[in-house]
Amino acid sequence: MADQLVKNLFGDPVDTANKRHSARKENLEVILRHGERIFAEFGFKGATMQAIADAATLPKANLHYYFPTKMALYHEVIERIFTIWLEAADSFDTSASPREALSRYIRKKMEISRAHPHGSKVWANEVIHGAPIIQDYLQTTLKDWTNTRIDVINRWITEGKIDPVDPRHLLYMIWATTQHYADFQHQVVTLNGGTPLDDAQWQRATENVTHIILKGIGI
Amino acid sequence: MADQLVKNLFGDPVDTANKRHSARKENLEVILRHGERIFAEFGFKGATMQAIADAATLPKANLHYYFPTKMALYHEVIERIFTIWLEAADSFDTSASPREALSRYIRKKMEISRAHPHGSKVWANEVIHGAPIIQDYLQTTLKDWTNTRIDVINRWITEGKIDPVDPRHLLYMIWATTQHYADFQHQVVTLNGGTPLDDAQWQRATENVTHIILKGIGI
DNA sequence: GTCTATAGAATGATAGAC
DNA sequence: GTCTATCATTCTATAGAC
Fold it and tell me: Which architecture characterizes domain B76-216 according to CATH?
């Protein structure tokens, strides 16, 4: 407070505070964005604070100012991804019919794979290595979310709206297939002749995935 | 040769040669097996030669005797996995009907996910990080294999045996879904209450995957 | 809040005795 | 072929000037 009053003598205190605040916000954002990309490309150990600092065009020591340790930065990256997943997942059961609910969910998941391939890769990487960081999320939030969706799918089955498939494996299939376009992006692009999928190709992919899964469960 | 004759003075040269040969073979095998596991769990950078040596109960220097560099060992691990993939893939088009060909292929892929989860993870890890090592395989062998299978699927479509889906996305779905049980093993086990899938559960998973995909393309 | 310089620890790889 | 000891490098993290 006293500090701010002194500063008033030399300029607009509000502007100064805002500039500082937005600088911090912007630095956090740029560090997280490049961190996500570097972690996705090189893994936790392979990614270095120096590489992230270079990508963010910040001195390495500044990263340690905002995030005390490399692990703290990684944790923040993981949490951001998890939030995106959860928000998309919420749209799953706000729809009335199985057709609408599942096609919306699949479409949203495909859109996330396209918009956040790095985040998906960091998540995949984490799970592949035994989920040392996100173990809690798997056992609590993800498990709860999964169980409620399983209930919904089971209701559809008892109402005769879809085939009596195991809801668990249906969910795994949706996750695996949609995330494949992000996690195995490099393989998909290579098999596409080295060119990233364009708008039409993404739409075609979404349509195919949706068609096979919906028809596969009897819709 | 002269060396072996000298050794003959002290024992059975054939036994000695065999023992040495099998010791070498056994060392190679144990290094590769544990290397695969460590690489799968920690990634290329995260895995240390010391950790692999400890797992194989060999001095670290011995690993460098058999494999000059860490990269050479990793490369060998990748090649072993790739061979397994290709062999399983060959069973794809030896069958007559789409139903038989695809259900056999899916079943084989599920069996590999169960028998070689570490190998699958190393492969996934490699692709996620942009396939710095296996780029060649993707552009040549995998691309060729994929294209021949696409031709087969397209023939099924023109013959009216399956729905007119995009063969590429059908293959991606099979790959993604079957490999999910290996790559995301930790997540699958966690959502299964912490218990690995038993025989019945693996069979159930295979049946569900097969059912949805086959029915999904109109078989 | 930013940046330089560096400490301290871990790791890939090798030399050289056995 | 095996193993110990060690070098050279790299990286996280921090101290301290500005």
Answer: Orthogonal Bundle (1.10)
* pTM: predicted TM-score of the whole model, two decimal places: 0.90
**Residue A105 and residue A107: Cα distance in Å, rounded?**
5
Contact B129 A212 (CB under 8 A): no
B27 CB-to-strand D distance under 7 Å: yes
Give the whole-angstrom CA distance, residue A86 versus residue A140: 13
Q: Which of A105, A132, A130, A134 is nearest to A119 (CA)?
A: A134
Q: Touching check for B130 and chain A: CB below 8 Å?
A: yes
Residue B212 is inside which H or E element, if any? helix B199-216
B1-68 is classed in which CATH architecture? Orthogonal Bundle (1.10)
Checking each nucleotide's C1' against the CA of B49, the nearest proves to be C12
pLDDT computed for residue A7 by the predictor: 38
**pLDDT tens, residue by residue, A52-110:** 999 999 999 999 999 999 999 999 999 898 889 888 877 666 777 999 999 999 999 99
Q: What pLDDT, on the 0 to 100 scale, is given for residue A92?
A: 66
Give start-end residues of each CATH 1.10.10.60 domain in chain A: 1-68
